Task: inverse folding
């Protein structure tokens, strides 16, 4: 089968300290219910600086300056460890500071809904002009700023959603309709953040793959936000909106939703579209969610820690036709949690892990690395949510024991060998399976591993439409086409030599 | 006789651990009454 391949990836973070306080739902709900709470009073002194976010191992792993294995040697907690890396840019992407990102929000705003204070606007315009992926041409599209009085009026009198930087009001997002509940300033703010971070991920993807953006045929967006109006809530579509801002002139696209499982659904669908010949280059992109900022903040503050959910995440994956080099997407080895699968851990792991392996006559131990829910345990453990990747690995290992593929005593060594420490921010879809695709691509191409499984799970029950949750999985594998080509070439060389020898021999006979 | 017999049970399951529905199935093997059951996503 001529599989499609993972041609490249990108991973971006945006440090948004003010958005934790003003836009994270844990904080906004607390302010509504109890505006004078101890938590609201304390949170301001638990916010990390941009430099602290840079000098944080999980951040640097996410953008590719550190490897996941390096987390294993780093004693927890990680937030107080100096990793001596303070790089903004990594091989996968970057960690953008908040002020520049607010400028990018303005550049991603197609309906003049984002108002920025004039001096702030000028300063971020200069920064975007100096950004290696945006530059002067991009920055020049930024419109004139506003007087702060006009912004204050919009926030105080017209329900505008304030945009803050360093604790000061620097702008706002206006409501997009007088009475439409799906076009409120709050919803527009969340959607523009998601769109802008998606644009950033897309720009890095194109940069990393070194492909012309005009070669992208189709974009699949797989975040967790919904854009639409009162007549079609969630009508969409972020994909085309992101593609427009990023300059993908020859593409259209659509959104895939499935809570945290959406990125893995997107990977499977993108690979099928390319393999079927419908499109040549499908870009999967997702921006992040402000709502989840500081989601576990109460526990972090209670334990005297910084609020670690201070970044918005984004990623991009380019799925292309088989180039003979990049890892293939084995979409004939797909796992899925069906409606009738059941919810016991054994049933779930069977559906997602062993069902695809059985199709390929493989054992659980035949997959070198499993990328499950890769949430950073530095964030989740203090909040009582445990080490999510670890519990997933234990369940996979337990099934391997049950199937007689592994000894019970080898369970923890299985976890170490086939698992990883989590490093992704708790941004829902962002940590679900996909954070490892970039590293998997490198390891597979370097021949360090043969096979990786990407597993995405989603909490569908949160939408109150079904009690079910969801999950899908897919295997990435080394591209064997290179070897085939090499073998053919050797055979061809042998054939050529044989022909030359025969010709030489016949000439000798003639003479 | 199960330790749950004649008890009322509140179930809070974890998507990445044991979901509520799975716990509910176990509880149904006793005479306990499930008065609340949900699965939560902690991430």
Result:
């Amino acid at each position: 089968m001529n599989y499609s391949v993972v041609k490249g990836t990108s991973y971006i973070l945006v440090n948004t300290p003010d958005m934790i306080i003003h836009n994270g739902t844990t904080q906004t709900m607390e302010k509504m219910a109890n505006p004078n709470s101890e938590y609201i009073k304390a949170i301001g002194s638990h916010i990390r600086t941009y430099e602290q976010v840079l000098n944080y191992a999980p951040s640097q792993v996410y953008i590719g300056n550190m490897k996941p294995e390096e987390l294993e040697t780093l004693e927890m907690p990680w937030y107080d460890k100096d990793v001596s890396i303070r790089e903004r840019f990594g091989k996968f992407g970057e960690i953008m500071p908040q002020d520049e990102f607010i400028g990018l929000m303005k550049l991603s705003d197609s309906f003049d809904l984002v108002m920025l204070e004039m001096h702030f606007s000028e300063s971020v315009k200069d920064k975007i002009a100096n950004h290696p992926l945006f530059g002067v041409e991009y920055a020049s599209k930024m419109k004139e700023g506003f007087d702060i009085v006009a912004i204050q009026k919009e926030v105080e009198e017209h329900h505008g959603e304030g945009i803050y930087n360093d604790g000061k009001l620097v702008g706002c997002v206006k409501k997009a309709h007088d009475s439409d509940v799906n076009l409120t300033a709050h919803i527009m703010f969340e959607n523009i953040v998601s769109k802008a971070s998606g644009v950033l991920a897309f720009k890095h993807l194109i940069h990393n793959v070194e492909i012309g953006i005009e070669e992208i045929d189709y974009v699949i967006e797989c975040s967790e936000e919904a854009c639409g109006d009162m007549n079609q809530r969630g009508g969409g579509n972020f994909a085309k909106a992101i593609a427009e801002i990023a300059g993908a002139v020859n593409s259209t696209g659509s959104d895939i939703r499935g809570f945290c499982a959406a990125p893995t659904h997107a990977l499977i669908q993108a690979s099928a579209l390319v393999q079927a010949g419908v499109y040549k280059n499908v870009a999967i992109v997702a921006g992040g969610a402000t709502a989840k900022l500081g989601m576990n903040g109460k526990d972090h503050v209670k334990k005297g820690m910084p609020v670690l959910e201070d970044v918005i995440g984004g990623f991009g994956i380019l799925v292309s036709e088989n180039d003979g080099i990049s890892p293939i997407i084995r979409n004939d080895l797909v796992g899925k949690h069906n409606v009738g699968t059941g919810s016991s851990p054994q049933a779930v792991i069977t559906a997602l892990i062993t069902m695809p392996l059985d199709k390929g006559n493989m054992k659980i131990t035949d997959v070198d690395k499993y990328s499950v829910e890769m949430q950073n345990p530095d964030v989740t453990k203090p909040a009582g949510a445990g080490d999510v990747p670890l519990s997933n690995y234990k369940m996979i290992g337990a099934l391997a024991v049950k199937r007689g593929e592994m000894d019970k005593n080898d369970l923890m060594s299985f976890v170490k060998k086939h698992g990883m420490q989590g490093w992704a921010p708790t941004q829902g879809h962002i940590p679900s399976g996909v954070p490892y695709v970039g590293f998997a691509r490198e390891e597979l191409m370097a021949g360090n591993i043969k096979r990786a499984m990407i597993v995405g799970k989603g909490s569908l029950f949160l939408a109150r439409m079904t009690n079910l949750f969801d999950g899908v999985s897919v295997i990435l594998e080394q591209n064997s086409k290179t070897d085939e080509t090499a073998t053919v070439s050797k055979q061809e060389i042998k054939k050529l030599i044989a022909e030359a020898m025969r010709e030489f021999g016949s000439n000798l006979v003639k003479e | 006789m199960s330790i749950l017999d004649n008890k009322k049970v509140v179930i809070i399951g974890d998507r990445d651990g044991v979901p509520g529905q799975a716990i509910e199935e176990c509880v149904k093997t006793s005479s306990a009454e499930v008065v609340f059951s949900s699965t939560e996503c902690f991430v």
Observations:
- Chain B touches chain A at residues 15-22, 25, 38-39, 41-43 (CB under 8 Å).
